[in-house]
């Protein structure tokens, strides 16, 4: 049960019951996102814990930091998923009590599917993550490969694909599941009936490539996207290294940014001279994108001759969009000193891990967010939730 | 207005009014996601259109494929945002009629902020995208740099950061906004009162790094993450090139996958011999991750000697998780033939672009999804929505 809080701090989803039959990233993230807004989320695992209970990274004790991170603030039950009687206990958990939402990444057991559950409780909402919409298998890494991004990531000219390390499609799919679930919950509050929601990882990736214009470009133009390193496509942005070896990302989105960047770097006259001599212009993002090599050559020269502290001050004075590259190691250093500055983090004492800073929800409601809570042990809430009848 | 559809096909968010004062990716994606589920979304732009109206990629006509992709199925009004009278018309649009949700990425105009709007309509829900939670500026590229992922992406040993091309934080932030909005909408249906929701891009990135265990690892262990190319962290997965030059991603998550992969590649005896000779094991994902160089060397040899069709058949026969790398160009080729196979896409005739395949929502509701609709022209719905009083 959530700790006693001010009424406005109980969470917007207070009273929402969620049973999560899941593993890895997308479905657990859906449950986590709901739990962070106050929902009561119960994760169902096979006896002994699911395969992702030991997923890296691990604490020195062997406790999975990954599992702990994605299952904060949930309750957990463990059952023998191979036993019809045990699956029946999960069905009971879903169908007794108030209306319930099921989040799952498996259609292996018919009695835990939408059809069977909605026959017992027409108000059940069931959200299912799939690899592919046709029922085929797929994980973030295979969906990445299928969708074009690895072939346009990394240094120009290199043929090999560069996968992104962030499991971006898992993250997006988990959030789409939560959106679908809450949209169905809205309608359920009015109509009293539940819905079946499905989201396929591959659809998430292809829909995103479509929403961002990549797939339209490939259909209606003969432009071919190629790798362009850290150059931002269609406007001006790139990373630079300062005289003292600090890496910075700089982004120019507006005319004001551009003019101010030239002021900051003392390059106004140089670019005016270039524009005149070469009969080209730098006004407008298309022109800056077209002449990005020229721009980068002059800027890289300035950064290479300027120490970080000086570059940062010059850019800040002109309110340019920039950021220093930080490593995970730096973010965690000194007990997470850098993280402690933000209201996003609070200390959690996770068994097997110890006290550390863990994130709350990135969603701020009326200026506040619920404190993070530890992830549960395997079967920690069996007695509370399964064995009481 | 959405076309006449079967009752179950009107969309779960039918009746939800959304006014979107936004630009670029995150907030438009929030509105798009709601529109794809049946909400009535009106995008407000400055006279002549916002800066992102010309964002690349472009069709040959100059129409932005990016803008068209992110604003499908919305209505659009254009006003002089510098004029108090025109901003008043936007306030009217929000506060007259049924309850309304505002999606915004700007806190520039106080009368369009939560405080002022909720004084007029206590049931207004207002969701605001920020760069940083402290009000500071930030875009996907700067937030990427701040959060560790570019320094662990790409080939081992290279010092330079590799940004991911997918604006993953924009995508996640847009979906978190939609989750927060729908959670507030759920509570509004019960309590009748609105809420102020805020999501900062930087918080989304840091929360995700925390949820996946990266930040806990940096705080409580002395492991330092480094670049590892396309190797999947903590388990076995990598890309390979076949004899005929096709790139494939292969992922081994379970013991069954591993055993079957050895069967598929005829390497069972080779790995048994290696295990015995070197006194090591390959059972369990931690061991396979530890010995990944060894595994990759033997597998790469097999792929390099095997043509794609043969490799694909061998892997499929053993139900291994794999995927061929595809380019955007390939996905769009022949009028999007590859996309046409999926129910996710349907034809849209976008002015300035022409007929092409555009995605529906990746969220499938009771087996169906709404057809995609074109994006609006600048001010297309001014008469309909602003000028009628």
From TrEMBL, chains A, B:
GO molecular function (one): isomerase activity
PANTHER family the record matches: ALPHA-METHYLACYL-COA RACEMASE (PTHR48228:SF5), SUCCINYL-COA--D-CITRAMALATE COA-TRANSFERASE (PTHR48228)
Species this protein is from: Streptomyces bauhiniae
Record's keyword terms, sorted: Isomerase
Classification lineage: Bacteria, Bacillati, Actinomycetota, Actinomycetes, Kitasatosporales
Segments for region (Disordered): 368-389
Name of this chain's protein: 2-methylfumaryl-CoA isomerase
SUPFAM superfamilies: CoA-transferase family III (CaiB/BaiF)
């Amino acid at each position: 049960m959530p700790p006693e809080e001010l009424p406005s701090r109980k969470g917007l989803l207070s009273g929402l019951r969620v049973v999560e039959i899941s593993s890895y990233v997308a479905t657990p993230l859906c449950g986590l996102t709901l739990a962070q807004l106050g929902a009561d989320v119960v994760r169902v695992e096979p006896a002994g814990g699911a395969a992702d209970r030991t997923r890296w990274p691990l604490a020195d004790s062997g406790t999975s930091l990954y599992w702990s991170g994605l299952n904060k603030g949930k309750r957990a039950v463990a059952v023998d998923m191979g036993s019809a009687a045990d699956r029946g206990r999960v069905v009971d958990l879903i169908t007794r009590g108030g209306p319930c939402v099921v989040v799952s990444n498996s259609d292996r057991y018919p009695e835990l599917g939408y059809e069977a559950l909605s026959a017992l409780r027409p108000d059940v909402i069931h959200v299912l993550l799939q690899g592919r919409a046709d029922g085929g298998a797929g994980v973030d890494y295979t969906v990445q490969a299928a969708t074009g991004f690895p072939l346009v990531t990394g240094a120009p000219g290199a043929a090999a694909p560069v996968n992104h390390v962030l499991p971006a499609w898992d993250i997006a799919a988990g959030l789409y599941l939560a959106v679908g679930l809450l949209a169905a919950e809205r309608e359920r509050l009015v109509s009293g009936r539940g819905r079946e929601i499905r989201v396929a990882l591959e659809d998430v990736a292809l829909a995103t490539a479509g929403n961002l214009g990549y797939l339209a470009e490939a259909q209606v133009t003969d432009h071919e996207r190629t790798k362009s390193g850290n150059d931002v496509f269609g406007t001006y942005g790139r990373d630079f290294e300062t005289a003292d070896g600090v890496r910075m990302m700089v982004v120019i989105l507006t005319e004001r940014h551009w003019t101010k960047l030239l002021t900051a770097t003392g390059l106004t006259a140089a670019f005016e001279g270039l524009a005149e001599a070469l009969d080209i212009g730098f006004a407008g993002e298309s022109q800056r994108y077209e002449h990005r090599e020229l721009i980068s050559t002059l800027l890289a020269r300035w950064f290479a001759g300027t120490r970080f502290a000086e570059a940062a001050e010059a850019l800040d004075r002109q309110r340019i969009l920039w950021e220093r590259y930080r490593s995970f190691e730096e973010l965690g250093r000194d007990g997470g000193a850098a993280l402690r500055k933000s209201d996003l983090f609070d200390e959690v004492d996770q068994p097997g891990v110890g006290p550390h800073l863990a994130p709350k929800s990135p969603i701020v409601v009326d200026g506040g967010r619920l404190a993070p809570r530890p992830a549960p042990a395997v079967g920690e809430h069996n007695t509370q939730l399964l064995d009481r009848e």
